[in-house]
Amino acid sequence: MTSYKAADSKREEFRKYLEKAGVLDALTKVLVGLYEEPEKPNNALEFLKLHLGTAGPDAPDVEAMKVEITELRTRKEQLEAENQELRGRLQQYEAAPAEAAEE
């Protein structure tokens, strides 16, 4: 009887540990995701590995990154336009002395 209580105690301790570490929540979310999949994957274990193994960035981080990407793309386009304009000016200045020398 004592070993039964000791095993029960260890199980409860382990369950509390998993709960505190967030493992139970993560497993529950992945299993719910698998349950809600319209087409069940052929390999459920791969599904679990894929969704458990890669803990992506938090939603606020993703949103901040999207905003930053948009800003950087806009800045890149501005710099490319400026670069084209400056190249055009440079060609004008390089062509002007050559034309003046011919005259």
From TrEMBL:
This protein's UniProt keywords: Nucleus
Main localization of the protein described in the UniProt heading: nucleus
Keyword Nucleus among UniProt keywords: yes
A GO MF label: transcription coactivator activity
Biased composition (Basic and acidic residues): 78-88
Any GO CC annotation of this UniProt entry: nucleus
InterPro entries, A to Z: AMY1 (IPR026060)
Locations listed in the record: Nucleus
Region of interest called Disordered, as start-end residue ranges on this chain: 78-103
Entry keyword Hydrolase: no
Positions with biased composition (Low complexity): 94-103
Domain of life: Eukaryota
Record-stated family: Belongs to the AMY1 family.
Name this protein carries in UniProt: c-Myc-binding protein
